[in-house]
UniProtKB/TrEMBL annotation:
It comes from Psychroflexus longus. Pfam families: DUF2064. It comes from the Bacteria. Gene3D superfamilies: Spore Coat Polysaccharide Biosynthesis Protein SpsA, Chain A. This is DUF2064 domain-containing protein. InterPro entries: Nucleotide-diphossugar_trans (IPR029044), Trfase_1_rSAM/seldom-assoc (IPR018641).
Amino acid sequence: MENKTGILIFSRSTLAECSVKKFNGNHSFFESQKKRLEALCAKTGLDVIWFGEKHQKGKNFGERFCHSIASVFSKGYDSLIIIGNDCPQLKFNHLQSSIKSLESGNASLGRCFDGGFYLLGIQKKHFKYSEFINLSWNSHKVSNELVKSLKPKVEIDFLSIFKDVDNQSDFLSLLDFSKQLYTDVILILKRILKFFNIHFQDPTLFVKEGVTGVYFNKAPPSV
């Protein structure tokens, strides 16, 4: 019998994300992310389990995240690819790479620049709730701690390091990665920042002007 692999999308709904991450363009961004993830995941042919805020249980992020993984594993899956909805650089080839890693018996990890991660591919036998729950969730330490936890058990295949979006500053800085973004994200950024008259091949200009301009000043505190 072949191992059963599923994709767990751990993410709030668009409205819930927007209520927490209050930056200009948030609704358009998260709505486009939702549609793209649905299409990318469907392309893999794997089961997709979306764990929104109504399904998550726990007092904090770590408890909700770990409960979601344990809950899906209890449904009979042997391995999971866990992703969120705030990394617009995630593409189909990254899901493919994670699937291949799991098929070869390895784990896979896509880390973020802020010390978190946007993708985790893991087998059920390597998931230890008691270890995961004690990681420094929502901190710059969590991906390194996760690596230390998994390394004695399994080889880890690392994906590219990407950017996730938590606030206005993160959203603006996506322009530094314009060549890795989908067209719809670029259009959202251009529309929100009103930079139609500036050549888009120099993203540094966008970030510099955006950070010092009116849109940055309107940004809420980081969550």
